Amino acid sequence: MASPAPLLISTASVPRMTGRSTPETVESHTLGPLEAARLWNRVLARQGLAAHTRRTTVEDIANAALGLHAARLPSPFATVAARAADGAIPLSLFDPAVRARLVTLRCMRKTLHTLPLELAAAAHAATLRFRQRDALRGLVNAGHSEASVTAATNALVELLGECGPLFHRDIEARLVAAAISVPVTRLALKLAWERGTLAYLNQTQGWNREFRTFALTADAYPGLDTSLDPGTAVERLLTAYIDRYGPVSIRDATWWSALSRVAVVDGMQRAGIKLVELITPWAANPLYMSTDRFAEFVDAPAAECATGVNLLAHEDVALKAYFETRRRYLGDLAPSAVFNQIGEVLPTVLFNGCVVGVWAWEERTGQVRPRLIPGLVPAERQKEIRAAIKKLTMTLRSGLHCVPAAQVGKDQLTLLSAC
Question: Smallest Cα–Cα separation from 244: which of 257, 232, 231?
Answer without folding.
Answer: 257
